[in-house]
Amino acid sequence: MKRNINEHKITEGVIWKQLLLFFFPLLLGTFFQQLYNTVDAVIVGRFVGKEALAAVGGAAAMIVNLFVGFFTGVSAGATVTISQFYGGGGKKQVREAIHTAVAVSVVAGAVIMALGLIWAPAALEWMNTPPETMTDSVVYIRIYFCGMIGNLVYNMGAGILRAMGDSKRPLYFLIASCLVNIVLDIFFVIVLGMGVIGVALATILSQLFSAALVCIALSRLEEEIRMRFKEIRFHRWVVQRILSIGLPAGAQTLTYSLSNMIVQADVNYFGTSTVAAWTAYSKVDSVFWMVVSSFGVAVTTFVGQNYGAGLYGRVRSGVRQCLCMTVVTSLAITGMLLPGGKYLLSLFTKDQEVLAIGMGMIRFLAPFYITYVCVEIFSGALRGMGDALVPMLLSFGGICLLRSGWLLAVVPVWNNMKTVMFSYPLTWIVTSVLFILYYCIYVRRHKIV
User: Fold this and answer.
1) Residue 114 above 80 pLDDT?
2) Distance, CA of 337 to CA of 174 (rounded, Å)
3) pLDDT in tens, 16-51
């Protein structure tokens, strides 16, 4: 079935409605993407034990997020490129960008798979992974990286569809692959008793399924822009444009992952119960990150299409309205997690010590969620306008350097989990202030009114 190039444009209509219509499929999509690892954590935590839970969700998850997060940032270069030309009606440029983006995802997947297989065990040791979880962590991460090509092809393909305003089909594909993941988890872990190996196999097989679905969707776009496998190749101008935006965006995501890895290394010093609690908290905490990242992607696509069409008034208005909606939602999430967090944590473990530690984490960090909102919305808006370098530098300084400095200088003096956790609100507040100032300067300098 052909898809018309004007079918998903968001360059007209009521702005907040357009944002929400785009946001909700993104949110549900992000939810089902998170559900991959959440289901893994629930099943191993309930049916294997807290050591397996720590192995699947501790340092191993951080290393996976390091690589996948970097590529997701790089793929933002393709998303912005496609959304701008799609908004301006450039069919030839859209077609070449699609084929180049898919080629980038295949090559990047192969490279990341090789790097992960070779480097991951050493990284686990560097992150002070508890000895009792090391074997399972190495097995899990090596199997996971074998499926990296399918993972990246899906993420890139879904980003291409969203760049053209289609956030529904990526959602449908994720729901289908998530259901496959759940069935395979139950079969491999509960029925066959394969433990961590079964969880990893279920994940990569379901991701391969989602990659196949997104490739089929791209091959059925409108004739002028549809993907043809024989035309998948690198177009130099697209590669240059993707990298000019994507590398800074990838580096920005990398700063988050690296700083989180440093935090995880400090958390690992406090023992298996704390690592398991941090893993369970991270799954609960993902509710906020799903929402804020979905608003971030929505504003990037909205700004990209409207900026490409020269509708600067809609750009600024869209950013303001998206920021307001994200603030209200983050406050609502905090209000729900403070009284209800214990019920969510109990999904992952029955260990009372782990539950008590996890609730302490929620009470400490959830009230600060609102301080991060400006970072996500303004960086997404700036990327949509093609500016990725300065947001990367702001994130690197405000998130990675400041957080690393805190962990290296202050944590050894006051060596407890609250000191480790305070590195998050500290860096969120500082980086938000930097983004507010830079965004105001940018829109005035470029006369985006």
Assistant:
1) yes
2) 25
3) 888 888 788 778 777 776 666 677 777 777 667 666
* Percent of the chain that is helix, strand, coil (3-state, to 5): 85, 0, 15
CB 76 within 8 A of CB 294: no
Q: Indicate the burial class of 413 (C-beta count within 10 angstroms; 0-12, 13-18, 19 or more).
A: exposed
CB 87 within 8 A of CB 306: yes
Across the range 300-311, mean pLDDT stands at 84
Give the count of beta carbons closer than 10 Å to the beta carbon of residue 383. Answer: 28
Helical packing angle, 131-146 and 91-126, nearest 10°: 160
157: closest CA among 82, 85, 86, 224? 82
| High-pLDDT (> 90) share of the chain, % | 21
For the segment 141-154, what is each residue's pLDDT rounded down to a tens digit? 888 888 889 989 99
For the chain, what is the radius of gyration of the CA atoms?
21
3-state class (DSSP) for residue 142: helix
The answer to whether residue 62 scores a pLDDT higher than 80 is no
Nearest to 399, CA basis, from 373, 375, 363: 375
Separation of alpha carbons 120 and 193, rounded Å: 25
Instruction: Say how many CA atoms lie within 13 Å of 374 toward its Cβ.
Output: 19
pLDDT value for 5: 46
CA pair distance 48, 43, nearest whole angstrom: 7
The contacts of residue 10 (CB under 8 Å, 6+ apart) are 18, 22, 165, 301, 302, 305, 306
Residue 232 phi/psi, 5° resolution?
-70, 115
What CA–CA distance (Å, rounded) separates 348 from 410? Answer: 31
Specify the pLDDT at position 50: 65
Please indicate whether residue 351 or residue 7 has the higher confidence score (pLDDT): 351
Nearest to 377 by CA among 309, 441, 301: 301
